[in-house]
Each structure stands twice: as structure tokens, then as C-alpha cells.
Write a structure and sequence with these properties.
Elements lengths: L3 E4 L4 E4 L1 H37 L29 H17 L1 H9 L4 H24 L7
Antiparallel strand pairs: 1-2
Helix pairs in contact: 3-4
């Protein structure tokens, strides 16, 4: 029961503001906690039902390792071209960095933040340029 105070001579009860703020604060987190518990239970029930309902009939053919429906021939060791991973990594870096440009543009439009955000964005773009220059100097960007 929350602590109550008497206010004035009217005799009305008023809750303390800190008790109300704390109750609202913990009520918000209890909803998040309940949602997390329900999510974990949902996943656990789905995995449990899948384990109970699936047929388990291992055969030698099912235990074979294959790639894209092709039966394996030779040994299981293969060389992988690393340049494809480097290109995809560079793409992800610049895609994520371009996403940061949108919030910057909204802050740049706000009054009083123009010069500061402009300098910060040029520093950010400078780091990107140095990374791109490093990748170019290492020969990563040449397709062979």
C-alpha cells in the first residue's frame, strides 16, 4: 500500500509523487519482462514440439554431407576465394555507414546544431575515406 499524505485542512489523501513514479517505472519493466518470458516459452514450446513430432529414421544416405544436392566427390577440403568475402564485408561497412547519414541529416536540419554536426560528419567521412584508402592500397579493391 503506498504511503499517503494529508494535504491541507480538507482531509483529502494524496499519493507521494515518488511512489507513483516508481510504480509506473516498474510497471513498464514488468511488461517487458513478461513479454520476454512469453517469447522464451514460445520458442521452447516450438522446439520441444518439433523434437517430439519429427520422425527420426537415420540412414547412411541421410548422414552424407552434400552441397546443393550434389553428392560429394573426392576429399572434403576445398579452397575458398576470400575476395568475395572482402567485397561483401566492404559492402556491409558502407551500407551501415550510409544508414548513419539519415539521422545526421535530421539533426543537421535542427536549429543550433548545424556547424557541430557538419564537423562531426566530415570527421566520420574522413575515417571512412582512410579505411577505403587502406583497402585500395592493400589491393583489396582490384578484381582479379
Amino acid at each position: 500500500m503506498p504511503k499517503r499524505l494529508r494535504s491541507g485542512s480538507e482531509g483529502t489523501d494524496v499519493r507521494e509523487p515518488t511512489v507513483e513514479i516508481a510504480a509506473d517505472y516498474f510497471r513498464s519493466y514488468s511488461v517487458v519482462g513478461l513479454l520476454a518470458v512469453v517469447g522464451v516459452l514460445f520458442v521452447a514450446v516450438a522446439f520441444g514440439a518439433g523434437r517430439l513430432l519429427r520422425p527420426v529414421v537415420p540412414t547412411p544416405e541421410k548422414l552424407l554431407t552434400y552441397e546443393c544436392g550434389v553428392d560429394p566427390v573426392g576429399e572434403g577440403w576445398a579452397h575458398t576465394q576470400v575476395r568475395y568475402y572482402v567485397y561483401s564485408f566492404l559492402y556491409v561497412i558502407f551500407a551501415v555507414d550510409s544508414i548513419f547519414l539519415f539521422p545526421w541529416a535530421t539533426v543537421f536540419a535542427a536549429p543550433g546544431y548545424g556547424a557541430t554536426t557538419l564537423v562531426e560528419m566530415f570527421i566520420f567521412l574522413g575515417f571512412l575515406a582512410v579505411g577505403l584508402l587502406y583497402a585500395y592500397k592493400k589491393g583489396v579493391l582490384t578484381w582479379t
